[in-house]
TrEMBL record:
InterPro entries: Abhydrolase_dom. It comes from Terriglobus saanensis (strain ATCC BAA-1853 / DSM 23119 / SP1PR4). It holds the Pfam family Abhydrolase_10. Residues 260-664 form the Alpha/beta hydrolase domain. This is Alpha/beta hydrolase domain-containing protein. The lineage of its organism: Bacteria, Pseudomonadati, Acidobacteriota, Terriglobia, Terriglobales.
Length: 673
């Protein structure tokens, strides 16, 4: 990879730089308009907020050490002043009546999309902006709403390995669009091929592929039987098209198709991290832009906090790891960060990276440090490092509140964050980090409530897991704000450990799951080890992947939270629904049909309800006691919920109004009526 790639020791120089004049690569100009009633941006926004949408035009100095870590920065297009330019969309929510001790709360958008939940409508300033350049500029977010995106430079003439994978296709389908492949469906802007010669690419099919990369029935489609083109309306080879391929004989729905090709002109995706950094520090610190446009936040905020959910939480972890919590003038970006249901890093700073990947086979993201403390990596042989090494050296680490649950272990390989790659000891948390593990939850938590049955998850065997995380998240966001603004310590961390026996080897935990007639046993996404090549810097999840798909060279051991006799997890934080369970709540699920049938249903947790009565339990041969046997009466069940909810409210793990809502829902439920 061209250009200097700083190690962790180099970042110590940032302390000196913060005291010296530097070139001011920054947000140069902002353009914004107020959104009126009826606009998409005003949907679900309180009336006492103004909504400003706009564009932030910025520049980066490629020679500044704060930016040197950006992959391909030396090869990127530059303006006449030798600077890299970017344009980021943003949306700013401005309170008409700012609260005392107001903060600027930045929410990292997930694949371009964001919504304003009620916990933000509290008198604080709320900001979102684009950072993921492989989402079409001016297009829609993956969620369907208007997308927050960023334009970044490209590295002209640079080439590298790329792959697009397709499965669960319609029988006989002729044209496959790269943007609709399993690889790029979460981005929409796949890498373009270096040329349209099929002799310079390979299209292979697989009859089977396991989650550990093991395959069978692999065959290559002859170059004469496919083409770069669109043949929806034109016979083979179709109309030439660098974004699609045409299959002469149509697709076989039972197969996986894997297109391996050489791509060109990569977007310098890592600029998105710098754009996020600079947009935040502009609104936090600057009075106006270079043309005199006033910053509506200036002078109003004391502190800045960032939150991110799933992919966005991974992005926060990468931002801190790569040193982007400090701008070029040495100013701190965020005083507090809250990664939610995040267990890895985001492959944003990778040539031809796929920031929207979901930790499926061949998705990079868990290949380097995934732990907050400084620790060794004996299994993969990476240098001993930690996510906080750079900010510790620069003395600008934020306060961190981390929230995650069961699906992050089963789908997102969270084991390494808790016990490293050797999986033999608990990794300690630094003093500025709090971790809260909501056990027995799906990715992001379920909808709550106290209903015996739930709807089926999409193409998954088990019903959806209703065990909620949202109420816990609301309480912890307030706790983070109090920690940042007032110095009030948040509740003590709550998570499972090897020392307490609430974590154990994954194989042992999975074997301990109760055998429930007619229900599946647990499935797990393994901790894969890849051969990524000499130009990939694993601990920073940065650089160039040499071969795609990269070879799988091993599987690291992992742990899982231990289970009780019902199959519910023991350690961590128990919600009121988990403390008064109506069934078994799990962080895994099983694919019902298609190419991946029988494997883990990505990011999806499941639910297996208890029998209502002892008679039903005996008829079904269910080893778990029935609801009737557990609680006796409706009143006793409600009292169990009440005790848990009120205890957590006293401990600041639940807001009082959420506790009261849960109790009311339990009272209104049909449990044991």
């Amino acid at each position: 990879m061209a250009g200097m790639y700083p190690g962790r020791a180099v970042s110590k120089g940032l302390i000196f730089l913060s005291l010296c004049p530097t070139a001011e690569a920054k947000v140069v100009r902002i353009v914004m308009d107020e959104q009126k009633d009826g606009s998409e941006a005003r949907r679900n926004v309180p009336a006492d907020y103004r909504v400003l949408k706009g564009l932030a035009y910025g520049e980066l100095d490629p020679h500044d050490p704060h930016n040197r870590i950006i992959t391909d920065i030396d090869l990127a297009e530059k303006n006449s002043r030798g600077m890299l330019e970017y344009t980021a969309t943003f949306t700013l929510y401005v309170p008409l009546h700012p609260a005392p001790k107001t903060v600027l709360l930045y929410d990292v958008v997930n694949r371009g999309g964001a919504a304003m939940p009620r916990e933000y409508a509290n008198g604080d300033y709320f900001l979102i902006s684009g950072w993921q350049a492989d989402i079409a500029f001016g297009g829609r977010a993956i969620s369907g709403g208007p997308g927050e995106t960023v334009k970044v430079p490209v590295a002209r003439g640079v080439t590298g390995a790329a792959v697009a994978r397709f499965y669960d296709l319609h029988q006989g389908k002729k044209t496959l669009a790269l943007a609709q492949s399993a690889t790029y469906i979460s981005s929409g802007v796949p890498p373009v091929p270096a040329d349209l010669d099929t002799g310079h690419a390979h299209l292979v099919t697989k009859q089977y592929e396991d989650s550990d990369g093991a395959t069978s029935g692999v065959a290559e489609i002859p170059q004469s039987d496919w083409a770069w083109g669109d043949c929806e309306r034109t016979s083979f080879p179709g109309k030439a098209d660098a974004t699609k391929i045409c299959l002469k004989n149509g697709a076989d729905a039972s197969l996986l198709y894997e297109l391996r090709y050489t791509a060109k002109d990569p977007q310098v995706l890592g600029v998105g991290f710098a754009a996020m950094r600079d947009v935040n520090t502009f609104f936090r610190y600057e009075k106006q832009d270079s043309e005199g446009t006033l910053n509506p936040v200036y002078g109003h905020v004391r502190s800045a906090i960032s939150t991110g959910v799933s992919q966005s939480g991974n992005t926060l972890r990468s931002m801190v790891n790569l040193g982007f919590n400090e701008d070029e003038q040495g100013r701190r970006v965020w005083d507090g960060v809250m990664p939610i249901i995040a267990a890895r890093q985001t492959p944003e700073n990778v040539r031809f990276g796929v920031p929207g990947g979901t930790s499926m086979v061949y998705d990079v993201g868990t290949d380097g440090v995934n732990w907050w403390t400084h620790a060794t990596d004996p299994v993969r042989g990476n240098p001993a490092e930690g996510l906080l090494d750079r900010c510790t050296a620069a003395k600008n680490c934020p306060k961190i509140v981390e929230l995650l649950g069961s699906a992050e272990f089963y789908s997102l390989r969270a084991s390494m964050a808790f016990v490293g790659t050797s999986a033999t000891r608990d990794l300690p948390l630094p003093l500025n980090v709090r971790r809260y593990y909501v056990n027995s939850t799906t990715h992001g938590g379920g909808g709550g409530g106290f209903n015996l049955h739930q709807h089926e998850a999409n193409n998954c065997v088990l019903e959806t897991n209703p065990n909620p995380e949202g109420p816990t998240r609301r309480a912890l966001l307030l706790a983070l704000k109090q920690w940042v603004v007032d110095g009030t310590l948040p509740p003590a961390s709550v998570y499972p450990t090897l020392a307490e026996g609430t974590l154990a080897p994954a194989s042992k935990v999975m074997a301990s799951f109760p055998h429930i007639p007619g229900e599946p046993m647990p499935v797990l996404n393994p901790n894969l080890i890849y051969a990524l090549g000499p130009d990939f810097h694993a601990n920073d999840l940065s650089g160039v992947v040499q071969t795609r798909p990269q070879p799988v060279i091993g599987v690291a051991k992992g742990v899982l939270p231990t289970l009780d006799a019902d199959g519910n997890e023991i350690g961590g934080l128990h919600t009121a629904l988990r403390d008064a369970p109506l069934g078994t709540y799990v962080g895994w699920n099983v694919v019902t049909s298609g190419f991946r049938k029988g494997q883990f249903c990505a990011l999806t947790g499941g639910y297996i309800p208890f029998a209502a009565t002892a008679e039903e339990r005996k008829t079904k041969h269910d080893p778990r006691p029935s609801i009737e046997e557990r609680y006796g009466t409706h009143a006793q069940y409600v009292e169990r919920v009440r005790a848990t909810a009120m205890k957590q409210a006293r401990e600041r793990l639940l807001l009082q109004d959420d506790a009261e809502k849960m109790i009311a829902e339990a009272e209104a439920s049909t449990v044991l009526r």
